[in-house]
Amino acid sequence: xxxxxxAGGFGSRLAEETSIKPKPMVEIGxxxxxxxxxxxxxxxxxxxxxxxxxxxxxxxxxxxxxxNLKNSTCVISENGKIETLKTSKxxxxxxxxxxxxxxxxxxxxxKVSKFLExxxxxxxxxxxxxxxxxxxxxxxFHNNSKKLATVTAVKPLARFGAIDIKNNDVINFxxxxxxxxxxxxxxxxxxxxxxxxxxxxxxxSWEKGPxxxxxxxxxxxxxxxxxxxxxxxxxxxxxxxTDLWERGKAPWKPKKNIIKNIIQFKKSVNA
Length: 271
Description:
Elements: E1 2-7, H1 15-18, E2 27-28, E3 31-32, H2 33-42, E4 48-53, H3 57-65, H4 67-70, E5 72-76, E6 82-87, E7 93-98, H5 105-112, E8 122-126, E9 129-131, H6 135-145, E10 149-154, E11 162-166, E12 169-174, E13 184-185, E14 189-191, H7 210-216, E15 220-225, E16 229-231, H8 235-246, H9 256-260, H10 262-270
Parallel strand pairs: 1-4, 1-8, 4-7, 10-15
Antiparallel strand pairs: 2-3, 5-6, 8-14, 9-16, 10-13, 10-14, 11-12
């Protein structure tokens, strides 16, 4: 199953970083957020990616083109010959597709649809949000729903701490609780190829155009994810994610017990 990653936006709200690099290449720790997302998908056995490029897309191409060399121990001789002594390769297949700088999200999907199988569902998410969503359960939920599309619904963390008060006494204090304002779009979609027919223009936003039509046709289901989810839209959110990563508290870092289930999961998907 292929995974489409939307990685072409300007990231204007994170201008401190995106003035010199595309948003998906902003690093959490020493790893671009885009690679963090890919690592999570690969921990469930999904290693075929279609990356929709736009703003500063050449930076993303350069990163993956030189990935093996940058993650290797090597010797460079006088004649410029490079001998690799030790390398850290990843078992991925990546299509890097230029989809236009000003193309909107739905348009990007439409432009890469030629790389998708018409009789096979695919996954899609944004290149700037991290989560520990269980992709195995998400896919099973989608298959059982019999809908054309499934979105991962999340409740974001509130920006401020919450307190419960009784008779002027604080009886409970919760640091950054989950929002009580309802569920929101957390990305991490599972989609039928037939959603492409809902895209009428390259300048359509995925959320404001096709998704609205899919909802109208009662073809969108919501997988409720109660776990970790965090976008990186501001510098404050980048610092929050970096802090979690550097303290070894990153919920999106693949766990060994997840990897152990990959073979069994892939067998169930292919059955």
